[in-house]
Structures are given as structure tokens and as C-alpha cells.
Amino acid sequence: MDIKEVARLSGTSVATVSRVINNSGTVSPERRARVQKVIEQTGYHPNHVGRNLRTQCSQKLLVMMPTISNPFYSDIIVSCEEHARANDYGVLLAVTNRNPQIERQYFDMLYTKQVDGVLSFLPTISPQEINRITAEYPFVACCWRGDERINASYVCIDNERAAYDMVAYLVSLGHRRIAALNGSYPGRTYEIEREAGYRKGLAHAGIPYREEYYLKCDYSHTEAYQAADRLMHLPEPPTAIFAMSDDRAAGVIKYLWEHGYKPGVDVDVAGFDNVTVSEITTPSITTIAQPCAQLGKEAILLLIARIKDPSMSNKGIILAHSLIARGSTRTIS
Amino acid sequence: MDIKEVARLSGTSVATVSRVINNSGTVSPERRARVQKVIEQTGYHPNHVGRNLRTQCSQKLLVMMPTISNPFYSDIIVSCEEHARANDYGVLLAVTNRNPQIERQYFDMLYTKQVDGVLSFLPTISPQEINRITAEYPFVACCWRGDERINASYVCIDNERAAYDMVAYLVSLGHRRIAALNGSYPGRTYEIEREAGYRKGLAHAGIPYREEYYLKCDYSHTEAYQAADRLMHLPEPPTAIFAMSDDRAAGVIKYLWEHGYKPGVDVDVAGFDNVTVSEITTPSITTIAQPCAQLGKEAILLLIARIKDPSMSNKGIILAHSLIARGSTRTIS
DNA sequence: TTGTAAGCGTTATCAA
DNA sequence: TTGATAACGCTTACAA
To answer: What CATH code would you report for A159-289?
Structure first.
């Protein structure tokens, strides 16, 4: 069942059928009705592959993420879909598991014309490769921006400022012994930014940085659990732990409960990202909320703008975060 | 940069270039080398749209899920990707937010030849629509099977048996007052199956079913929190709560802590699915583990088999679940 | 208002 | 072993 068959059945030409399908050109009402009836009766669906080949665009966007198991992406992606749809684009998701090989396979969809643009959370391919892609194809970085080696459009929050704000908040609660749990993934620039924010926050409060309070710890409640064990066994344990992700914070809280500390009373805990788990733990987690809906929206709009105007130069958008105080930190007294 | 240009630059025909690309037919070593060199130098990538139009297949599979925020899908999807890739298929993900309109748009990718097959977690379109799709296109249901109205291939666990097993386990711990939290989403047949398993488990232990112990509650820790409140205010509160999902169980545990009950001691709690949160809570959650990797693998293989053999009839595969006992239920004494 | 036909980039048939 | 060419299904000048 193709357009030719529809044309035959409705006694007209493929051109007219195409006009009816796309609401383009001029078609007499009678013919239009006849064609529409045939389409309805036969259940004909235009072949997008033929159409894409002809029009040289797919009206599809690819959203690449390192993992599907981080709920942080959820709201962003919902927003992406919504705004893509509003602009007649479909969204396809790809999970890369931080495998550069797999990332390249998905980026191939750009070269091979299967998608018109890519929106990517932090990838693992090299800055050179990213620059090569952004130079030629529509690309937007979402929730990250590279260092000076990267030249690409991006939409994200000011991670340094966010970490600074959280430290300032903990200081305002009276804390002086503030530990931090942060990753050290090469290329994960927002971790570097958050570390800088943490250090500046301490410095601004006149608190010296203590090496034993800054622990490397990947995104995982189990690693955070172990890190909490290290921290609480220090000669001078911290009074607050800024875990820099909600799942790490959840791991810390679990440790505290299981070792006789009351989180939010004996030791304060803060997270980052405001994902579901931050409300599930007891107590709930004080955290930094990223403006997910807006992140998704701005990123998609930027991507579509670049698709429509290939000469557009790269652009960075920084959105505002917010600090959500919950029970894992003491109330100001 | 197209195949014609590559042919020109390497002084041969498009046919030969195509043979080189696809390792088909016969090409002399010298020519092959010449063509490959040009491809390398120019960075040529074959246009998949042209190829798909010609070959009438895309080598792409669509995996449709209701939401990305349920981490339960994560491991299944990783497995899907792995086995699809091993069979030269790419996997595209689509999130539908349980919106039948959006589901239809993605199913359109089948009609419009953008993907060769669809693997779907529980959708919201009608059984009739699903039957229409499965009759004509490769389709596999993953983690669900419809009722008698649905005729489609599926891969899932025996949900009734799983619920039965959990009730039997709770009974073996000495419980007689066992409540259950379950959804009541129309068409979510596995919820019906789990209810049946719950009832049979009680019956087998000679425990009468009590209406006030069976609460409808959607997938959400907040609703479960409220449900726990209702249960614990009954004249005769349950001694065990089978929450039928880990996030519900987490909500129950949160309620118990906040109201002076010790979960796993005063009241036992059980979940379902064995997602990350089941290890984050204090105590960890006793739950049913679905064989995620195997579910993804079998579903993908079934889908690919159906693509390769359109005359294949529908097939149902049931995989074994397992019960994981953790701290949210008392140890056998 | 309608139809003819070229062309999008590829693969595969067939002849050389 | 190679190359010319038709075909895949569609959109869109252009001509009628």
C-alpha cells in the first residue's frame, strides 16, 4: 500500500494525493474528500523513509543519555518530548552506558540522516570528537558544558554557584565541619565546578579546607555508605555531609541510622538534584533542585533553532537552581 | 558526499562502492583498497534513509515504555540493547507517559517503516488496537500479557505465583494479618494476577480475606504512605504489609519510622521488583526480583525471530522470579 | 486545479 | 570482476 495505490484507487495522481496528505498546494474539495476517503478505508500511512529521503530531513531528534537508571533525567526528557512535539519533531531516546563506542554509533544517526539533531547529556567521547560533531551538525549539551576545549551549545545550571549556596546554607545553620562527597569522573566538568563551589563556600566563611573531609565517591548509595563510615571514624568527624547527589545522600543517611546517629539532628546531610529518593528517605533530603522542565525546553528549542538556521553560532544558557531545605538538615535555631 | 561522489573519486561505479561497503559480491583487492581509502579520507557515511528505502528495513527496534522514572526498566533495557546489537539491530527508546495518543504516534513508526518491530511494556491503547498491530507487525509484550482479549507474543514472569510466594513467605514468618497494597489500573493485568496470588496465598494458609486489608494504591511512595496510615489505624492493624512494589514499600517504611513502629520488627514490609530503592531504605526491603537481563534478552530474540519469519505465530514465555529476603521482614525464629 | 516526471541515496539485477 | 540502470516511496518543480 503506497501513495501510487492510493492515487489509483481515488482516480487521481500521486501528486494530488501528496498534496492532500501534506495540506500543500491546491486541491479541489471533491478530490480531497475522495482521496481522504480512500486513505481512511485503506488505512494508508505514508512511508516516512521515502519522505525523509526526498525532504532530506527526518523531523526526529535524538536524546542521548549515559544511563536510564538515574531518575534525574526523567522530568527533563518529558519536557523535551513536549516541546519537540509542539514543534513537529519526534524524540528518540538512546542509552549509551557511558560507552564511547555506543555513543559513536548513535552519533552516526546524524551522519546517516536518521535524525536531524542530537541533544546529549554528558558523553564520554573526546572533546575533539564533540567539536567535530558540533561544527557540522546540530548539537546541544544538556546539563553540562565542557571546559575550554569544548565549543558547543549548552543549557545547564551554574553548578559552582549551586554548591556554594549549599555550603553557605550549611554554614548558616552553624556548621564548621562540613564534609563533601563528590565524583571524579574525567570530563565530568560539573563535578569540578561543584568542588570549586564547595571550596569557595568554605573560604567565604573563613573555614579552612580539610583534605580528609573531601571524599571521592561515585553516584551510588553503597559507595556513599562506605564514605560515611570513613568520615564518621575520623578523629574529628564532620557535623554536616554534603553528598552532592541524592542517592549518595541516601546512602549516608542509611549509614547514620544504622550506626546510632540521627540524621538531621546529630549529623546534617545534603544532596543534589531533588530526585524522588530525596523524599523517600527518613528524614527527607535537603537538596539542590535543577529546573528540569525548563532545562528540557530550552535545550530542545536551542537545538531546533540550530537545525533551522545552520549558520547559528553556539550559545550557552544558564538557568537558575534552587535550594530545598528538608529534614536531613537541622532547622535554623 | 554520497556514494556517487565516492565512486567518482575512486574511479569506479556506485555498484562497486556499494559492494565494498556491504562486503557483498566480488571486488578485486586493489579496487576495494582504493574505495576504502576514499571512504576513509572523505569520512563518507552511507545514508541510511536511502538504504532503508531500498532494502525495506531499518534494522531498528523500538522499545516503548510508559515512563522513564521507573528504574525497573533500566536493566531490562540494557539487556535489550545488548542482544539487539549482537543481532545487528539498533534500539530506540520511546516514552509514552501512558498517553494513548503518543503511543499511537510511536506505533506509527511501524507503519511508516521507520522501525522493524516494537517491544512494549504495558501500553494504554485498547486490546483491539494491539491485536490489529500484532496481526500485521512484529510486536512483543514485555513484562505483561493481556487477558483473553489479547493475542500477542509476550515475555514475563508469573505474577500470580510471585505474589503467592511472597504471601507464603510472610505466613511462614508467622504472620496471619497480612495487608496488601496494589494498583487498579484498567488493563494492568499483572495487578489482577498479583491480587489473585495474594488471595490464593491467604486461602492456602487458611486465612480469610479481609477487605480492609486490601488497599488500592498507585505506584508512589506518597500514596503508600497514606495507605499505611489507614492500615495502622484499623482496630486490628496488620502485622505485615505486602506493598507490591518497592517504592510503595519505601513509603510504608517511611510511615512506620515516623510513627514509632520499627519496620522489620513491629511490622513487616515486602515490596516487588527489586529496584535500587529496595536497598537504600533502612531496613532494606524484602522483595520479588524479576529476571531483568533474561526478560530483555528473550523479548528481543522473540521480536527478531518474528521479524525474520513473518509467519511465526505468537508465543508466550514465562521466566522464573525469585524472592529476596532482607531486613524489612523478620528473620525466621 | 491537476498531472508528469525528476530526483533524494541506496541496493541489486543483469549484461558485459 | 565490473558497470549501467531500475526500483524503493515520496515531494515538488514545471507544464498543462
So the answer is: 3.40.50.2300
